[in-house]
Predict the structure.
Amino acid sequence: MDRARPRPRQSASHRYTGEVQFASVEENLRQSFRAVAASRCGGEVRELPGVSIASAGVTFQMFNAAFLSARVTSENDLARRLLLAKTHFRTRGLDWALWVCEGWLDRAVQRRARQILSGSGLRHSVDLPGMQAEAVLPPVRPLPHLEVRRVQSGPTRDAFCEIGSVCFHVPLSWFNEVFDSASVWTPFEAWVGYLNEEPVSTAAVVVGGDALGVYNVATLPGHQHHGYAELVMRHALEDVRRRRGIERSILQSTPAGLRLYQRMGYRTVTTVSVYAS
């Protein structure tokens, strides 16, 4: 009998689940913030050495965003990029957030990243699984009936912001400020699900990184666990897929949505960590 061969050690290039998968998640996430920033008069989209800025210039600091845009190979490299981002937002008097896909960080930097970021005045907010599906699986149960409407200016925009405010625990005025431009609804395509004319659930899709990015999946308390979010999300993905011909989709999951997304065929390919000033 042949002896079992030892498993070869993974090279650094295979530690992150694959470059194509990671790139789709990371690029689409940045594109979603660029879409919002570019829609606002006070927004800015900038490329600095190793850092991307997509700032809406708003009170809601998560939308004044910075991203890594190349692999970080040392602690000094990370500190240099943090200084660039911090200087950008400090000169504008804005609170901001850093969105970090772990695939950009070499292993040694990953182990020290939170300490380095904390030393730069950024507190850790949340870790989100970055997930991808080449194609969404069929529902495992019959979905409910909702009327799903595309968001534009007016009542659908108001409903989208109100549901987001409640579900993400953010003041309504902050959401209204982020989405106050009619032009945002072209690159940031969003839908609201209505139950007997009551808006109850939302989902949005952004095209980027050769994928459909799913965002703002939310259902009002009292209407959860009925399949409404899944229905609106599937409606949104199918609408954009039919027009754009893109099947692959990505998202960042909250703990509450993880099992749903796994049932739909999504699997984790990276982790997105969020730090706030």
The CA atoms of residues 125 and 170 lie 14 Å apart. Residues 12-130 form one domain. The mean pLDDT is 92. The chain has seven helices and eleven strands.
